[in-house]
Each structure stands twice: as C-alpha cells, then as structure tokens.
Amino acid sequence: MYAVLLSFSADPARLELRPGHRDRLAAHVTEGRLLAAGPWSDDTGALLVFLTATRDELDDIMSADPYYSAPGVTVAIHEWSPVTRHDALAGL
After folding, report:
1. Mean pLDDT, rounded, for 58-84
2. pTM for the whole structure
C-alpha cells in the first residue's frame, strides 16, 4: 500500500489536466488499485492511497498520467503499512 502526497503551487497549469486525471483515478478504483483519493480542503495538495503489488506498478500508473508531472505539482510517495483499519479494508 502506498500513500501518494501531492503538493500544489499557485500555477494553474495542472487544472487543465485534472478532468483526465480524475477519469484515470475512477478507473483505478474500479480495477482495485486505488482505495481513496482527494484534495486537501484548502486545495494545497492531495492524498491518494494506492494498493499495488509493487512500487514499479505504482510508478507505471503515475508515469501514464501527465497530472503527476504537471507544472506546480510535487509528488512524495511513502510505502504505508497501516496497523489499524476499517473493516471495509480488512481483506486488503
């Protein structure tokens, strides 16, 4: 499981890529690779939680989406091992 933390600058260039990015996110949810995603309430960044077999799989997902390399988007990735979770995530 990986937590992807995005930080956004004031550069609006990323916004034209956002509709396609959100379509890709919906597909990743359907395919079981994305557990949750969304922006911070002040729109300074976002959190995405991916469930992939390997870091390489996550890197492939991210390299296929130009949003992650858009001007004004900074990405930090952390492998995450939750010690507690909601029952809905128990089988993951």
Report:
1. 95
2. 0.88
